[in-house]
Amino acid sequence: MLGAIGVASVAELFDGIPVELRQRAHLDLAPGLSEPAVRARLESLAARNTGAGLLSFLGAGAYAHFAPAVVDQILQRAEFYSAYTPYQPEVSQGTLQAIFEFQSLVAMLFDQDVANASMYDGASATAEAVLMALRVRSKRHKVLVSGALHPQYRQVVLTYLEGAGHSQVVEIPFDQTGATDLEALADALDDETAAVVVGYPNFFGIVEPLDAVVASAHARGALVISATAETLALGAIKSPGASGGDISVGEGQSLGVPLSYGGPGVGLFATRSEHVRQMPGRLVGETVDGGGRRGYVLTLATREQHIRRERATSNICTNQGLIALAVTVYLSLVGRHGLHKLALTNLRRAHDVASVLCAGPRWRRRFSGPVFNELVIAGYEARAALENARANGVLAGVPLGDWYPELEDCVLVCATEMHSESDVARLVEVLR
Amino acid sequence: MSDGSGKQAGLLLDEPLIFERSRPGRAAFTIEGEAESAAELLPPELRREPIAGFPEVSEPEVLRHFLRLSQWNLGTATTFYPLGSCTMKYNPVINEALARLPGFAGLHPLVPDEMAQGQLELMWELARCLAEICGMEAISLQPAAGAQGELTGMKMVRAYHVDRGRARKKVLIPASAHGTNPASAALAGYSVVPVEGNRLGLLEAEAVRRAMDDDVAALMVTNPNTLGLFEREIVQIAEVVHAKGGLVYLDGANLNALMGVAKPGHMGADVLQFNLHKTFSTPHGGGGPGAGPIGVGESLVPYLPTPRLVRDEQGVHWADHFPKSIGRVRSFHGNAGMHVRAYAYILALGGDGLALATEMAVLAANYIRKSLDSTYPLAVSETCMHECVFSDKGLEAVGIKTLDIAKRLLDFGFYAPTIYFPLVVSGAIMIEPTETESKETLDEFIAAMREIAREAHESPDRLHAAPTRTPVGRLDEARAARHPVLRWRKSGE
User: Fold this and answer.
1) d(Cα A49, Cα B107) in Å, to the nearest integer?
2) What is the ipTM of this complex?
3) DSSP SS3 for B220
4) How far is A201 from chain B (nearest CA, A)?
């Protein structure tokens, strides 16, 4: 090969790089390892993740659900995982058709007209939704964000908005039901308000009265963005689209994707047809080839960075392809009735936890609003109780004091189809 | 391929949409217990019925459906995928197995730090390796993809300037840059000022000096650039930018050309993003998930996203109290599953192996460059780094353009190079072979490219008709955009 190139050594190929740089470029890293040695090293690290094997009631934006074996079987197909963004549609129809199915499923899940090919995660999808709302309502600059929206989603929104135009974020408090305070919302809404952002269910597990939020926001011409961190809920609770929400985003990790310490997940993004050209992210559309055969291509790319550059709707240049595929396979497997039943099973389990836990003297429900599979309980020395539970091998919930100082005595507990009756009994026992 | 009826036959099987396979009452999933009555736990106005239109299919149907779809894809596992700028190297299968170890895959992001010490140690070590590779001071693993890494970097640039009195207004970006650069700069609130490269597409310190003033927040530069050339004046360019108080953002998209050869930190870079899915072999996944960690020099450390990893005698843990931080760009801790894979890759190769990977990638690119330089015109004839760029110049006469060449390559069983990018080359054909291809594969590809050039003159219609050996022929993209059909709908809807 060197002969064909016409150089004497590989080193000569790097002659264009200043020698001062090359002299200092040595990598002070350990020598390479064999496959068994790499495996041994990683297995020993994995074994130190002692939290992974415990009975866990942690949720708060990442959920341990059952995934049928077929999901991972498909994800391990190298034809899927070793491909890239489908620039050449004729040899990428597998990825493209799967994304088209994903878009269809997400649109139905949210009851919206159109969904994109996915975003990084629920938090950045929420931030992109806010940016989109500011484009759609381009004469307005205010964004009202519910204090009951996932705190990390709120943080990401703030990071994305910093420096991007002269937008202003106002936080709306929550009330005793755990939902966004509708009176405070109505007071804050004005003709400068571009959008209202609420969690659905929100961070406290409460199913927000989205109809009322929408009525209030639309009366002042503001868009409503709902962010669903636990998308499995949409199998049993009213869809955000049916409530009149304008942009519906979410995190799809619940739907067939392992926890993996919080990532990769997949951001879901759906809206009404009228806004599609303001939408961020990749889109797959149906078309035909020269012979009239149906096929799928990336489309409406003139919104995107590789064409529009600094005037693009977003800087995103791919999607979360493989994770979107996982969601597509998962939803195909659980199907129409399975999703409904799973969601109802989660609903039941959380209520089981609430009733047995709050039957004792120590714990009470902090909020009165309707919940899906998570709820906030309050009790004295909440953190000590969690410590004690942990000492007994149970991750009983997420303490809320770090995010909400006023909820220092509160714990967010999540119960799913993965928990048996005896798991719930064990939780009660260690939290007593 | 086709039996003439329009349906596929033989090894290429037709496959409808999953929704079209659906039949009422079919199911692939059961779970114990009665659940229906649970709906009563919700107020009536919040309840939802099973979603009309959702699939009702059996498990074998689902398996068959997605297996058939998989067969309509090319990936690096099936063939040579010379997609320039995307570094489509082999994805070691072992890394897939390791990321699935229950200790990693089953770890909740909010477990107490002491119960995630394996993951945190891994992330700490990965960050240390990345810092060593790029010669930077500190790393954040949080960004979920390269473009999000860019945005994170530019947000930090902004925070740095705001901290010094004003955000400044402009960002300099060469015309050859990836589209994400101007989009990320704009998203961070900056206006974009293009800088022209020289005849070779290289940036000159003098050109940067002319464009540089104290309203420029940063220069975003890709090195090696998108023509596959090392920016020779990068050190002087960085000095020019720094002299006016600006910062240098180095796009690390092409880091595969630099490992063990030159460190961005020594070039004067203040911030860069890594693309773990390119340089560090994590799968591209049909478009993601990627991971886009950022590395920063000392001046930008205070602005890193939170939380940050710190290490003390108790181990590795998360710390949140950095008042100058730009905050979060993603929930939890980034694409941790990708960090596992990238770390396993670095362990397997080691320092010398990474340097060798770079050498072999550059060798392969130059072999292709020289082997095809009398067949297609090169955008620049210099020795290249990890990729080389050709164009379709001269083929207009026979009515052939880059797109035709790309489509014909598919018939030869190869994925196509990146085409029509960089924008500074008309009809660009950008080839990045990576280090993972054998000489035999490169020779087959070279032979195919030569054959296509011959066909372009002798039987151009074959190129116009291509591809013919794929599940579908050339698709009508204009129609897709003009009449967008972006989802399946239940009939009657």
Assistant:
1) 7
2) 0.97
3) strand
4) 11
Domains of chain A, start order: 52-67+335-431 (3.90.1150.10), 70-328 (3.40.640.10)
C-alpha B21/C-alpha B34 separation (Å) is 27
Using 50, 70 and 90 to split pLDDT, how confident is the model at B1?
very low
pLDDT value at position B9? 59
Q: How far apart are CA B429 and CA A87, in angstroms?
A: 13
Check: pTM over 0.80? Answer yes or no: yes
pLDDT in tens, B230-260: 999 999 999 999 999 999 999 999 999 999 9
Q: Provide the percentage of residues in chain A whose pLDDT is more than 70.
A: 100
Query: Mean of the per-residue pLDDT values for chain B?
Result: 95
Tell me the per-residue pLDDT of B176-192, one tens digit each, with 9 for 90 and over: 898 899 999 999 999 99
Contact with chain A for residue B110, Cβ under 8 A: yes
Please check whether residue B294 lies inside any domain of the structure: yes
Q: Which two tokens stand for residue B169?
A: 């207004």
Local confidence band at B175 (pLDDT 50, 70, 90 cut-offs): confident
Four-point Cα dihedral A267, A272, A275, A277, nearest 10: 70
Check if B245 contacts A (Cβ < 8 Å): no
pLDDT at B490: 85
Tokens 């910093």, residue located: A162
The number of distinct structural domains making up chain B is 3
Q: How far is B293 from chain A (nearest CA, A)?
A: 13
Tell me the residue range of the domain where B5 lies.
1-72
| Nearest-by-CA chain A residue for B475 | A289
* Structural domain includes residue B300: yes
B361 to chain A, any CB pair closer than 8 A? The answer is no
For residue B492, pLDDT over 80 is answered with no
User: Do B126 and B249 share a structural domain?
Assistant: yes
Distances (CA, A) of A255 to A109, A259, A335, B20: 12, 11, 12, 22
Alpha-carbon separation of residue B118 from A88, B127, B333 (angstroms):
40, 14, 14
Mutation target for A interface from B58, B73, B345: give the one with most A CBs within 10 A: B73
Report whether pLDDT(B450) > 90. yes
**First vs last C-alpha separation in chain B:** 35
Q: Which two three-digit tokens encode residue A313?
A: 């709707």
Tokens matching residue A165: 């135009």
* A272 token code pair: 């009404």
